[in-house]
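Supplementary Note 2. Why include the ligand at all?

Several targets in our set were suspected to adopt different conformations when bound, so apo predictions alone were not considered sufficient. For every target with a known small-molecule partner we therefore ran a joint prediction. The input for guanine is given below.
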Amino acid sequence: MGGAAAAAVALLAATRRRPAAPPLAFLLPRVARAGLHEAAAPAAEEEKGRTRRRRRRSSSSRLLGPDIPDTWDPPLRAAARPPPPSGAGVDYESTATIIDGKSVAEDIRFQIAEEVRQMKNAVGHAPGLAVVLVGDRRDSESYVRYKIKGCEEVGIKSLLAELPGNCTEDVVVDSVSRFNEDPSVHGILVQLPLPQHMDEERILSAISLEKDVDGFHPLNVGNLALRSRKPLFVPCAAKACLELLLQSGIELMGKHVTVIGRSKVVGLPTSLLLQRHHATVSIIHAFTTNPEEITRQSDIVISAAGVANLVRGSWLKKGAVVIDVGTNPIEDPTSDYGYRLTGDVCFEEAVKVASAITPVPGGVGPVTIAMLLANTLDSAKLAYGLATESHEL
Ligand code: GUN
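The joint prediction is reproduced in token form.
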């Protein structure tokens, strides 16, 4: 082995013995941060650690990776992080086009309303969306309100099952099963996140594939990942990101797109959809060691980390296109509600570097709801034999 190669192997071995915490480690929950430094634990802790590791290994295949949550900083704490020195990496001369999600959503809703009218004339039925809301999280309640208002605006029938946060998983599954059997319901959405004591995968698997308008069913995700196949439904936020890029005339083929976050709701399906559009995709998550460096090389940055002001102006290449999927509540005593929503991207800085950017609110959010209505309409078309496109199951 040559000197350089031997040195590289020695370095690798040393790194494996004592993994360095990644720069974004401060964004991880305490339990995950502790996991990064298990090698330094004292003897008693070492034994506990071994038991934990054994349990982890027996519960999931090592090849599928350790089951550490990909949780970032809570939004309120992240918002309190001090801003960087003004001017760092920022060109104050340029101004970005603001991508208007509200008007894009309005156009989509207009088309959907017309198709719903035609469906009612043709088959005498409107599409139906059932929403299951568990618990009383204020953010979830307000997202659900917007979804139901969207249905009303386009003539889609909506049903809402509101369940207490301390109900059992079986109660939620029963509610989903009833909607599965109701022929007037074409789409079922279980609002996430669910209370911690519930097994999200079990509840989501109870939704029948034909009514999975969220696109979270493994077969829908799998078919999205395989370029030769077509999913029945694609997750709404991912569709919204692509719609905004395409409607803004932004070329995707061969472009370097960085997606921040890898959740099944946004990051993962967006990265898969972008690859189907022949973009070169980098995915950043809470364990990525050099997030700034990667985003700074990107033509397009799509952020769905759920961390207020994570992406600074200095993270962006001049002229980059920025799609901000974050909706993080931050304290604001001047607002009626005591808080306001802010994105993952520090808008005031990014707007001076980017060529185009979505605002929060008024960017991805309204288009995501429009996509939910579109998926529900598509599902009803399939149910009534009005669909023209074929899908592979
Ligand atoms: N919570 C936040 N976004 C979403 C979404 O797109 N679907 C569901 N079911 N829950 C969410």
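The first helix runs from residue 3 to 17. The pocket of guanine is lined by residues 189-192, 214, 236-237, 265 (CB under 6 Å). Comparable summaries for the other entries are listed in the accompanying table.
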